[in-house]
């Protein structure tokens, strides 16, 4: 009776678990490192995959996953999907996208998209945070412990802002993001290709909304990325949209009715074309059909026609592949293996195209939907020290530069440099007494600043007034292992740290993220308290029952009056605590009751033994 | 005396504290970082082996459970490691780095800085480029020939560099550095010419 009442807090001090998360355009997935290797974290309903779909009902909590996806056809105005395409982007970046997605954009979306749902406004990192939180909750239920550290995967071709947005999403979800890993690199880890001691491999990652190609060199457990390329605006979504466009045109000519504007109809059609697309990976032909307000549309779609339709999309993946091979400074013949990742690699035409380009049969053994999450779990294992001897050396996908005279970009760190990477640059003043120097930092390969992606403007402030050209400010640009830039500056004559004000061109400011975290922490705290109270009450119920039973026992009568009184007193106090929200008070009283009932427990035990002994005498 | 940020004991040369083994803030000079003499001829295989070995010891992945200072030192040290390996493994960038450190930066190439010995070739090339732009396809042959010539010059300057590297390392004399600078300048100019020709030919 004694120890069963006590609550074990010993696990809290143990090393924390790090989970791996694939935050995908279409689906998301969590994984962890098992004793035998990486494994997927199942959801409560046994479904592993969490569709990256979030519904915001008029009242109540947001809905994430399968249920939210089901609402796409019934309540499309309240559902957000493919939000990854909006991460780290501004209004100008997504104009094309928004023609195809039904999202309503709020005012003030120039540097961060704000999605309007009913009377709520959400930024993409907040929507992604809801998906991450779902995976966190699934993991916590599965392990029966809190999980607050994670490795999250991102497309290799994500720029600084998109990476920062993903990290922000993690923070808002209450996760410390220990590392962002590039999806193709994660896939290479999952395939355990390190068993192959030396060699060159290519990873072709064609997902729901992004395309990546990476070429890696394997060397005694070191996965060294030689080059990466891609398109963060290209994925299975584009194929769906092509099919939808064709069907809409068909429907218009058949029904003489344009249903483009009706979200519900378009979403039902979207569901139908996705099913047709998926079936075409196995069947030579499928029927694409739509029923809508009593009208029926049906069209037979053969794989041949489908292939012709999607050839331009597939071809768009081959250009980055060729550029990547050239940048990696290898020949096609030197590439030993090709790994296929992402749901879109199930399409036979994609496989044929990859095989033709790389002159090698691509690896498809692992489930292309799971391989990235599994790789993230391996990286989590590397960080926790559970996986030794394996090391990932990744690269920055885009060159980093600063704007100079005439809007020309001067490159500081070239693309495909192994990260962490740094560059030092000296700045001075042009005018006597100048107090500020403004540095415009960009990412991209083009010559002119206007053709590159503006990351931020760094304002070197409070420079001591001096004649022009005298101050010497050394600015250090550092890209960390997550591919995220930080900038520090120093006045070299004085050695004084130079103050910098950062004005990010896109994305949330630190203050905005902090505010979002605060809001979610408040919510999380409320959730936490509720759970603690619930758990403490369960414990209390158990001890009440045990004590009630004890009172029926003959051992109860052998206790002294003081002992009985003491028990009854604490018992009543626990009843009072039970109905409060103070879970620590409930716990204290449980502990106290446990202590005072010890004599009772001991006597009950003795009685049981003596009864047993008497029993033997009688025999 | 330089001391360890963690145990405050005196530091020796090297990235780790000899007393408590904490990772220190790294040196920023690439030769010092790899404990290499300031030579221009380098055994690349040996350097690569060192790069992989140090990657295993310094990479941020190995420090995610360590203190904030050590995590920052790990990122800084790995950045220098990667920058140094990228710069030193290529003979051109390696020479440019050493030149810059000796105050002999090449700087931005100005199109007017034609190396005098190339004047005739450049003049002919410009004529051919002009003809091609005016639709004279026969200039293509001339350009292809010119390209071959420049390619040969490039190979010759690479051989020159190799010899100068050896000379520099043996004597560590400034005249060698000045000569290297001249070759690098010339080389960069030729590379740009080839790039321009390729642009017109494609």
Could you describe the 3D structure shown?
The complex is a heterodimer of chains A (619) and B (202). The radius of gyration of chain A is 30 Å and the shape is globular. Chain A has 15 helices and 27 strands. In chain A, a hairpin with a 5-residue loop joins strand 20 and strand 21 (409-413). With 202 residues, chain B is an all-alpha fold. In chain B, helix 5 (119-133) runs antiparallel to helix 6 (139-171) and helix 6 packs antiparallel against helix 7 (174-201). The chains are: A alpha+beta (619), B mainly alpha (202). At the A-B interface, helix 10, strand 19 and strand 22 of A face helix 2 and helix 3 of B.
Which helices and strands appear, and what pairs or packs with what?
The complex is a heterodimer of chains A (619) and B (202).
Chain A: E1 18-23, E2 27-34, E3 37-40, E4 50-51, E5 53-55, E6 63-64, H1 66-70, E7 79-81, H2 95-100, E8 104-105, E9 115-117, E10 120-122, H3 124-143, E11 149-154, H4 160-172, E12 176-182, H5 183-190, E13 198-206, E14 211-219, E15 222-231, H6 236-255, H7 263-279, E16 285-292, E17 295-302, H8 303-328, E18 337-341, H9 348-358, H10 371-384, E19 391-393, E20 400-403, E21 409-413, E22 421-427, E23 437-443, E24 453-460, E25 473-479, E26 485-491, E27 500-504, H11 510-552, H12 555-558, H13 561-578, H14 583-596, H15 598-618
Parallel strand pairs in A: 1-11, 11-12, 13-18, 15-19
Antiparallel strand pairs in A: 1-2, 2-3, 2-4, 5-6, 5-7, 8-9, 9-10, 13-14, 14-15, 16-17, 20-21, 20-23, 22-25, 23-24, 24-27, 25-26
Helix pairs in contact in A: 3-4, 5-10, 6-7, 8-9, 11-14, 13-14
Chain B: H1 30-33, H2 44-58, H3 68-88, H4 91-101, H5 119-133, H6 139-171, H7 174-201
């Amino acid at each position: 009776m004694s120890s069963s009442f006590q609550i074990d807090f010993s696990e809290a001090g143990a090393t924390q678990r790090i989970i791996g998360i694939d935050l995908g355009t279409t689906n998301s997935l969590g994984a962890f490192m098992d004793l035998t290797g990486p494994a997927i974290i199942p959801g409560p309903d046994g479904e592993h995959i969490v569709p990256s779909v979030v519904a915001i009902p008029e009242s109540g909590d947001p809905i994430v996953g399968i249920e939210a996806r089901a609402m796409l056809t019934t309540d499309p105005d309240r559902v957000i999907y493919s939000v990854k395409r909006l991460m780290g982007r501004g209004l100008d970046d997504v104009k094309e996208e928004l023609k195809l997605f039904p999202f309503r954009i709020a005012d003030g979306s120039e540097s961060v998209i704000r999605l309007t749902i009913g009377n709520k406004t959400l930024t993409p990192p907040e929507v992604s945070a809801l998906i991450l939180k779902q995976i966190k909750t699934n993991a916590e239920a599965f392990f029966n412990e809190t999980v607050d550290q994670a490795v999250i995967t991102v497309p290799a071709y994500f720029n600084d802002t998109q990476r920062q947005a993903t990290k922000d999403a993690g923070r808002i979800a209450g996760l410390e993001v220990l590392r962002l890993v590039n999806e193709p690199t994660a896939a290479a880890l999952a395939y355990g290709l390190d068993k192959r001691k030396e060699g060159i491999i290519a990873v072709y990652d064609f997902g729901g909304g992004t395309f990546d190609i990476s070429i890696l060199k394997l060397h005694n457990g070191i996965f060294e990325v030689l080059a990466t390329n891609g398109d963060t605006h290209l994925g299975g979504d584009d194929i769906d949209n092509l099919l939808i466009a064709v069907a809409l045109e068909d429907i218009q000519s058949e029904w003489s009715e344009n249903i483009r504007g009706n979200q519900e109809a378009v979403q039902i059609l979207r569901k139908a074309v996705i099913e047709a697309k998926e079936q075409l990976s196995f069947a030579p032909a499928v029927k694409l059909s739509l029923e809508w307000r009593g009208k029926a549309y049906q069209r037979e779609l053969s794989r041949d026609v489908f292939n012709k339709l999607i050839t331009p999309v597939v071809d768009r993946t081959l250009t980055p592949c060729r550029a990547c091979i050239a940048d990696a400074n290898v020949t096609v013949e030197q590439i030993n293996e090709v790994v296929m990742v992402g749901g879109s690699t199930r399409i036979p035409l994609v496989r044929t195209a990859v095989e033709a380009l790389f002159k090698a049969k691509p690896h498809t053994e692992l489930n292309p939907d799971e391989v990235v999450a599994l790789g993230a779990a391996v990286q989590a294992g590397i960080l926790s020290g559970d996986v030794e001897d394996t090391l990932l050396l990744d690269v920055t996908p885009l060159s980093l530069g600063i704007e100079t005279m005439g809007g020309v970009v001067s490159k500081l760190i070239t693309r495909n440099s192994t990260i962490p990477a740094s560059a030092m640059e000296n700045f001075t003043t042009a005018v006597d007494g100048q107090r500020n120097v403004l540095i415009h930092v960009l990412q991209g390969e083009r010559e002119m600043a206007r053709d590159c992606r503006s990351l931020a403007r760094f304002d070197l402030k409070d420079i001591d007034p001096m004649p022009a050209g005298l101050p010497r400010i050394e600015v250090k640009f550092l890209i960390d292992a997550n591919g995220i830039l930080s900038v520090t500056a120093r006045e070299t004559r004085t050695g004084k740290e130079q103050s910098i004000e950062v004005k990010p061109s896109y994305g949330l400011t630190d203050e905005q993220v902090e505010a979002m975290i605060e809001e979610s922490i408040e919510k999380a705290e409320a959730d936490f308290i509720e759970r603690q109270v619930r758990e403490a009450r369960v414990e209390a119920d158990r001890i009440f029952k045990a004590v009630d039973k004890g009172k029926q026992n003959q051992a109860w009568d052998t206790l002294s009056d003081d002992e009985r009184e003491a028990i009854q007193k604490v018992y009543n106090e626990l009843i009072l605590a039970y109905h409060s929200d103070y879970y620590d008070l409930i716990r204290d009283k449980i502990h106290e009751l446990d202590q005072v009932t010890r004599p009772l427990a001991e006597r009950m035990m003795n009685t049981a033994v003596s009864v047993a002994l008497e029993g033997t005498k009688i025999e | 005396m330089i001391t360890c940020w963690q145990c405050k004991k005196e530091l020796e040369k090297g990235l780790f504290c000899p007393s408590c083994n904490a990772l220190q803030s790294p040196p920023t000079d690439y030769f010092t970082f790899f404990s290499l003499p300031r030579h221009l001829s380098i055994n690349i295989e040996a350097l690569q082996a060192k790069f992989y070995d140090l990657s295993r010891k310094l990479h941020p992945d190995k420090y995610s459970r360590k203190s904030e200072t050590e995590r920052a030192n790990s990122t800084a040290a790995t950045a220098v490691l990667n920058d140094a390996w990228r710069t030193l493994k290529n003979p051109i960038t390696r020479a440019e780095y050493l030149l810059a450190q000796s105050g002999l930066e090449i700087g931005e190439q100005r199109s007017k800085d034609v190396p005098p010995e190339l004047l005739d070739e450049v003049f002919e090339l410009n004529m051919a480029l002009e003809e091609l732009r005016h639709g004279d396809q026969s200039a293509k042959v001339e350009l292809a020939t010119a390209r071959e010539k420049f390619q040969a010059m490039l190979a010759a300057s690479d051989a020159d560099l190799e010899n100068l590297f050896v000379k520099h390392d043996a004597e560590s004399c400034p005249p060698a550095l000045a000569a290297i600078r001249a070759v690098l300048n010339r080389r960069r100019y030729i590379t740009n010419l080839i790039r321009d020709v390729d642009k017109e030919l494609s």
